[in-house]
Automatic annotation (TrEMBL):
Organism (species): Drosophila mojavensis (Fruit fly)
Endpoints of the signal sequence: none
Domain Bromo: residue ranges: 718-788
Region span, Disordered: 1-64, 377-415
Molecular function as annotated in GO: chromatin binding; histone H3K9 acetyltransferase activity; histone H4 acetyltransferase activity
Family indicated by similarity: Belongs to the acetyltransferase family. GCN5 subfamily.
Domain N-acetyltransferase: 478-624
Gene Ontology biological process terms, A to Z: positive regulation of transcription by RNA polymerase II
Keyword Cell membrane applies: no
Catalytic residues as annotated in Swiss-Prot or TrEMBL: 543 (proton donor/acceptor)
KW Cell membrane (keyword) present: no
Protein name according to UniProt: histone acetyltransferase
InterPro entries the UniProt entry points to: Acyl_CoA_acyltransferase, Bromodomain, Bromodomain-like_sf, Bromodomain_CS, GCN5, GCN5/PCAF, GNAT_dom, PCAF_N
Length: 810
């Protein structure tokens, strides 16, 4: 769906124009000085050599071209000059020296390594604490391949561009993000590792369904009744919208301060999403050392809601101003755009819109048809030549594979595989019919079905409307009806009776707090149970605060059904995780609802958000967006019956008894397996030869060689500057509560001992212990700590070392 006609806005590109050297002197860090010096000298050389046109307009496209040209120019330099450039960001290899980048001697400090100047390997570093020759900054780099060298140089240029942008940008939030990415790239260049963004921002995709999927659903939902040409037009309109969004420049949160369309909560959500957009979508579009994601594929309704009004106004204006540049046959896209935007706006506002329901899926036939059309109609380049500002999809054209292409491909593959049926539909239909028939014919015989789950009985009650489930909550901005208040008061009592350890005031405070909601189970208009919860949409999880059912109604299945309703409610709002601090007595119940003490969410995602309780256990439940939990048990039962029927049908088909093979008696030593009669009929397929390369590495490596390799990796890891926190076990004397939190400690000393004892018989065992060191550290420490940073840095270094020895999978 992406790659429609390109109507884009002028962006604020990352490199902007490089005319300003920035105030390098004010920078304390030598790194930053190097970046400033390098960026400054390269910009002056660009201007003087005329290789790169001066920045006449700050468009995204011209910035991208400028960046690519500069990279290409650096890639084409002679090796000595490339190494000189790298030396400026490489640690001195001289033992004990802590210098992290060679500094041009005073007399040459205005000369540009990227043009004519090539320092001698003997030239001394200007850094007073180093003074070692350039050679000592590059001795470890001379062996690396050309492509790895170019990758590092590319990252350096990205870093320098970020540095320059940091100088220019005024917005403090944006500046901070640039600084963070600058440091990340700096660290990656120093350690020669891939840049990976970790931390409280979470990992993309951030919401489900993504905007692309919802927009595709909208086309089906609103326009599938149109004739093929009109439907085609609406599809093009949708693609144009997505394209616009993917090139859209979001305003910084500070620029939106005072925006009446944003509530206080929206504003904080927007700030998080803006940071995510900068880090994962915008900056990587210009810095291809960072993995790029497309806005419409990783964000969902929350982001779109906060930007829609302003963005759609701009798109409408743009459509009017670009109208004449569109060819006649594409003008309908422009004319239909307002109608499409209105429809999308309406669905954005509706709480129960199906297009934002992650389980909503247009029928396969529609998806296939759309895909076919998409392949048949003009490819993005043709559409872009319709006179739009920048060719779509050309974000990162020359260096490496554009990451967003990878993402799109993955998504496309997923859609394809989702639509592949491995059994002919008629066969399944036949089995379903037969199951349904057997149910009706057996009905009268089963008076007391023994196997019916409690959940089935509750569902039957719900169907008869003997019980009802409602999500209720207090509000300070909208009127709250009397019924809701009465239910909230009743729920407060249920929680207070069933959770006697909780102070009553605290229960009242949360039940009536506007950020909390309660899923109420109502019987005869009285609440008999409920779950009080607080959603954190930006963090992707919901916190369960209280959960209780009145004593007389317990163990009837209500608790299960309440939880299933909450799961469905959360999934529909794009939330994939539930977290709760469970009382000891309730751990069993939560386990039965799919919760586990093994928390799969990274601590920074929930720490500081969820309320923590002493003597309660944190439990986590991951939600699968395509499961309807209130139907799940029934669906599984039904599916298992259909499967049994399919197996029975297959069994009948292959029951044929064959005469047996006589060829061996007749003297044949062997026959091909596939020639055995009946084998293919029961579904046997010739197996592909296993691909050698896909075998686990340890199978093909002898243990002694492996042990030597592990010893060398361990040695290097121990010597790394970030290894100091992990050299020996943490003692309870140093960190008294460490072992309350860390059940499986690990450290480099213990690993050394295990290695000596021959414990590491496989690569996986070795990697698992090392991974344990880093995960323990990240679990116990918060991301701002030096320890946390050391874990990230050392982990990357470890992976590089393993990769160098061919011991890493990817
Ligand atoms: N320990 C172990 N298993 C339990 C518990 C428990 N405390 N309570 C219920 N179960 C089991 C049931 O036996 C049943 O298992 P089965 O399906 O295999 O037979 C399953 O969990 C679900 O039972 P339901 O009947 O669906 O649940 P119920 O309606 O009894 O509600 C609830 C469960 C909410 C825990 C209820 O028992 C209750 O209100 N207890 C007192 C309050 C409480 O402890 N709340 C949780 C505190 S933690 C918190 O609020 C975050």
């Amino acid at each position: 769906m992406s790659g429609g006609p390109a109507i884009t806005l002028k962006s604020q590109p990352i490199d902007g124009n490089n005319g300003n050297s920035g105030n390098a002197a004010a920078q304390q860090q030598q790194t930053a000085n190097n970046a400033a010096a390098a960026a400054s000298s390269s910009s002056s050389s660009q201007a003087s050599s005329g290789t790169v046109p001066p920045a006449q307009e700050g468009t995204r496209q011209s910035s991208l071209q400028r960046i690519q040209l500069r990279k290409q120019k650096v890639f084409n330099l002679p090796e000595a000059q490339k190494l000189a450039k790298l030396s400026m960001y490489s640690a001195c290899q001289f033992e004990g020296c802590r210098c992290t980048g060679w500094k041009t001697p005073q007399e040459n400090r205005h000369r540009d390594v990227e043009s004519s100047y090539c320092p001698e390997p003997t030239e001394e570093c200007r850094n007073a604490s180093c003074r070692h020759p350039l050679r000592s900054h590059i001795s470890h780099l001379t062996e690396i391949s050309r492509s790895s060298m170019d990758e590092l140089l590319g990252a350096i240029i990205d870093m320098e561009n970020l540095f320059m942008s940091m100088q220019r940008v005024e917005d403090e939030d944006t500046k901070k993000v640039y600084l963070y990415l600058f440091r990340l790239l700096r660290q990656c260049v120093l350690t020669r590792q891939q840049a990976v963004i970790r931390g409280p921002l979470g990992d993309p995709p951030f919401e489900s369904p993504c905007i692309t999927k919802a927009v595709l659903s909208l086309v089906f939902y609103k326009y599938s009744h149109l004739n093929p040409t009109e439907l085609q037009t609406m599809t093009e309109v949708a693609k144009t919208f997505l394209n616009f969004l993917n090139h859209y420049n979001f305003e910084s949160p500070s620029a939106r301060r005072g925006d009446p369309t944003l509530t206080h909560e929206d504003a904080s959500t927007y700030k998080i999403n803006y940071t995510r957009w900068l880090v994962f979508c915008h900056v990587p579009a210009f810095c291809n050392s960072l993995r790029q994601f497309e806005t419409s594929l990783v964000f969902g309704r929350t982001l779109l809601r906060t930007v829609f009004q302003y963005m759609s106004q701009q798109l409408k204006k743009k459509c009017i101003s670009e109208r004449d540049r569109f060819p006649e046959d594409k003008r309908s896209i422009i004319t239909q755009m307002p109608k499409f935007l209105e429809a999308l706006r309406a669905e954005l506002l509706k709480d129960d819109s199906p297009i934002w329901d992650s389980t909503y899926r247009p029928p396969n036939s529609f998806v296939v048809q759309q895909r076919k059309r998409h392949q048949e109609v003009a490819p993005p380049a043709t559409i872009a030549s319709a006179g739009a500002a920048a060719p779509s999809g050309s974000k990162r054209s020359s260096v490496g594979e554009p990451a967003h292409k990878r993402v799109k491909k993955e998504v496309a593959e997923r859609v394809t595989s989702e639509n592949q049926d491995d059994l002919p539909i008629e066969v399944v239909m036949r089995a379903m019919k037969s199951v349904a028939e057997s149910k009706t014919s057996n009905k009268s015989e089963i008076l007391f079905p023994i196997n019916v789950s409690r959940d089935e009985n509750v569902k039957a009650e719900e169907q008869k409307r003997a019980i009802e489930f409602h999500v209720v909550g207090n509000s300070l901005t909208k009127p709250v009806d009397k019924q809701t208040i009465l239910w909230l008061l009743g729920l407060q009592l249920v929680f207070a009776y069933q959770l006697p350890e909780m102070p009553r005031e605290y229960i009242s405070q949360l039940v009536f707090d506007t950020k909390h909601k309660t899923l109420a189970l109502i019987k005869e208009n009285q609440p008999i149970g409920g779950i009080c919860f607080r959603p954190f949409p930006t963090q992707g999880f919901t916190e369960i605060v209280f959960c209780a059912v009145t004593m007389a109604e317990q163990v009837k299945g209500y608790g299960t059904h309440l939880m299933n309703h909450l799961k469905d409610y959360s999934i529909q709002r794009g939330i994939k995780h539930l977290l709760t601090f469970a009382d000891c007595d309730a751990i069993g119940y939560f386990k039965k609802q799919g919760f586990s003490k093994d928390i799969k969410l990274a601590r920074p995602v929930y720490a500081g958000y969820i309320k923590e309780y002493d003597s309660a256990t944190l439990m986590h439940c991951e939600l699968h967006p395509s499961i309807v939990n209130t139907q799940f048990i029934a669906v599984i039962r039904n599916q298992s019956e259909i499967l049994k029927e399919l197996i029975a049908q297959r069994h009948n088909e292959v029951q044929k008894v064959r005469t047996g093979l006589t060829c061996f008696k007749e003297g044949l030593p062997s026959i091909p397996v596939e020639s055995i009669p009946g084998l293919r009929e029961i579904g046997w397929k010739p197996q592909m030869r296993p691909v050698r390369a896909s075998r686990p590495l340890e199978e093909s490596t002898d243990p002694e060689k492996l042990a030597t390799q592990f010893a060398s990796v361990l040695q290097s890891v121990r010597q790394h500057t970030a290894a100091w926190p992990f050299l020996r076990p943490v003692t309870a004397a140093e960190v008294p509560d460490y072992y309350d939190h860390i059940k499986y400690p690990m450290d480099l000393k213990t690993m050394g001992e295990r290695l000596k004892k021959g414990y590491y018989q496989t690569r996986r065992l070795f990697m698992a212990d090392m991974a344990r060191i880093f995960s323990n550290c990240r679990f116990y420490n918060s991301p701002e700590t030096e320890y946390y940073r050391c874990a990230n840095s050392l982990e990357r270094y470890f992976q590089t070392k393993m990769r160098e020895l061919g011991l890493w999978d990817k």
